[in-house]
């Protein structure tokens, strides 16, 4: 069983009868302010989900379906987004690095909705 809590760790947002979030059906779920740090969400279905304010630092969303999801004010530092489907995704207030921006654009996100690139620190 997997439980997803808010960023503060007090409120349970979702309980799933699963052993992994990889490929999970989270479509249409209310996951605002969720703590998803370092979660493996490869191939997850997040269509139409509300993730506003969620913490997705270092999460792996490769191949996830984000179509129509609300990712407003989401923390994506170090988050992988290769191969996502992103048509209609809402990204208000999100900071993206160049690779994340390119992955979202390739996945169908509206270029006008994509924030400007932030520099990636090397070293």
TrEMBL record:
<dbReference type="InterPro" id="IPR051082">
    <property type="entry name" value="Pentapeptide-BTB/POZ_domain"/>
</dbReference>
<dbReference type="Pfam" id="PF00805">
    <property type="entry name" value="Pentapeptide"/>
</dbReference>
<dbReference type="InterPro" id="IPR001646">
    <property type="entry name" value="5peptide_repeat"/>
</dbReference>
<protein>
    <recommendedName>
        <fullName>Low-complexity protein</fullName>
    </recommendedName>
</protein>
